[in-house]
């Protein structure tokens, strides 16, 4: 069971986005590319709701069950970020909230 939380919280001119995963989606049990596509779509939706885009992302943290997955998702991240590259941390983890999950992404955005 996932604890009580919100997907994003605003403080002053900063938006903090909780770790996003493919949990509960059609891509939950699929590969890292499909899960990342779902997560980036979720992040895009949150940004649009806040009137932002990927250029507002200051920092992203990626949690991968296998660091080898980076070679698969790197092109997806490059396309998502465009010319604006945020600060980024990559962490290999032994598990996520569900055994099917391979990737989780959290982010911090500047709001103008």
UniProtKB/TrEMBL annotation:
> Could you state a single Gene Ontology molecular function term?
deaminase activity
Cellular component (GO) terms are: cytosol
> From which domain of life does this come?
Bacteria
Which family would the database say this protein is a member of? Belongs to the RutC family.
The record's section on PANTHER family has:
2-IMINOBUTANOATE/2-IMINOPROPANOATE DEAMINASE RIDA, PROTEIN HMF1-RELATED
Identification of the protein by name: RidA family protein
Please name the taxonomic classification of the source: Bacteria, Pseudomonadati, Pseudomonadota, Gammaproteobacteria, Oceanospirillales
């Amino acid at each position: 069971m996932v604890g009580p939380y919100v997907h994003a919280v605003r403080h002053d001119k900063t938006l903090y986005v909780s770790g996003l995963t493919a949990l509960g989606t059609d891509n939950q049990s699929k590969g890292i590319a499909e899960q990342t596509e779902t997560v980036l779509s979720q992040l895009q939706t949150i940004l649009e709701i806040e009137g932002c885009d990927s250029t507002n992302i200051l920092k992203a943290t990626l949690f991968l069950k296998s660091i080898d997955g980076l070679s698969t998702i790197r092109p997806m991240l490059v396309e998502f970020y465009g010319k604006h590259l945020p600060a980024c941390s990559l962490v290999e983890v032994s598990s996520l909230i569900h055994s099917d999950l391979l990737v989780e992404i959290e982010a911090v955005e500047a709001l103008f």
